[in-house]
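Why predict the complex rather than its parts? Because the way molecules touch one another can change local conformation, and only a joint prediction can capture that. The input here totals 532 residues.
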Amino acid sequence: MSATAKAAYFWRSAVLGLRHSPFVHSVAVSTLAIALFTAGLARGAMRMLDGLKDTLGGEVEVTIYLDDSVTPERGRALASALAERTGGEATWVSPDEALTRLSRELGDLADTVAELPENPLPASVELRVPPPLRSPEKLAALAREARAQEGVTAVDYGEAAVERLSAISRALQVGGGIAFLVIVIATVIITSATLQLAIYARREEIEIQKLVGATDRFVKAPFLIEGLLQGLLGGAVAVIALWAFSRWAGPRVDELFAFLVGPGRSWTLVDGRALVEVMAVGAALGLCGSFVAVGRFLKV
Amino acid sequence: MIQLFHIYKAYPGDPPALSDINLSIDKGEFVFLTGPSGAGKSTLLKLLFLAERPTRGQILIGGRNIARLRDSGIPFLRRNIGVVFQDFKLLPRRTVADNVAFTLDVLGVPRSESRERVMKMLKRVGLEHKADVLPPRLSGGEQQRVVIARALVNDPAILLADEPTGNLDPALTLEIMDLLCDVNVRGTTVVVATHDQSLLERYAKRTIRLERGTIVSDEDGIQAARRVASAG
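Output of the joint prediction:
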């Protein structure tokens, strides 16, 4: 009594099952493929937008305005302390340098700055925030900490922009999660329905199996493998479709976002990780569907 | 080998299918169960391989009370009992060899060993040359021989046959009955349910007659054959 022989029988029986009802199984595989393709696309889009957020988030800068009493040495010391504390890049900007920048940015209106009786701009420390600290909560904590320093009059870190980007990201995650849940439920229902048909088509075989002494597990195993194979096939079709779509749409997407992130950056929907994820999710969905079908319809 | 004590079987809303059945079948015996349609022959066979459970009573097979067997134990009981039906129950899209191998697949017998045992069994029932043929291309007698091969390939101690010749013409009926006698000669206990009286006369085996769910007679082969001959 060999376990290997039984396993070989289960796989042989599952493959035969797929071959004997090609239409029914192709419906399940197509449904799984469409669901996985959609999920893969959504996942790729989310990753792309996350990347975009990171790229735009690179501009997130905290500006710490200093009192006139703060000496340049003290200002530079504060900058290096902040750089060390956060792991970001901090520079002390003198009031003169700030005025020069303003003149440069105003362009034709620079003359108005020259007519000012005195430089109204304070000295400041500009901190380029590293990626781990770019969440609204961490930025707010950093601003509070900076405000508590002696000689600091105000802190500005573009709260609105950061919060908006984070809100978009959160909305995408929640929306993606809900969409994924709907896809999971729908595909499990469809896979289990097709396996119900397969079970019905093979009721005679099941009856004979029981007659010659098959255990419940022996009867159920090929159907579970059938579900697994459906999931893997659906996953494989989805991966091929995602790869093809990525090749077709990739250059167009790059072009679309080039104005935001600059040229030379390219997006891909299918990398090694995505392939493994899509195949694994496909296998899991197929297996879940077959578990439901076997549990509900295979009363052995 | 098989003992039944005060067996009752009732279905809700119907008169009892079996009432107070007591019988004993020895190892290596050949027994006919006979009686008119609805007498309880098939029900009695179903109780023996636990397709049904008795409402009351005890069934001992090899000394073990199977009436109390858990559902999970049924497959293991059935591996020791071959069953043959009137309607064959063959898989039409699998070859003769695959149909016979079905019993061995369930036991996890490796393919190479299985093929060897299947061919040996097909040779015994005279169908080795039809191993790769699909069942619908066989005659009724040949299909029934495949079923017998499937039931015996695992060397069960008991063979139960429910109207095994019910769908066959007289020549094929004798062919199948000869095969069942041969199986019995080799040591397998055989129980055949039939309403064909000519078989009782011809084969002169112990005959248990059922009517309306009760045993009305239990005769040895000579008594049964004489009674049928005198009635005919």
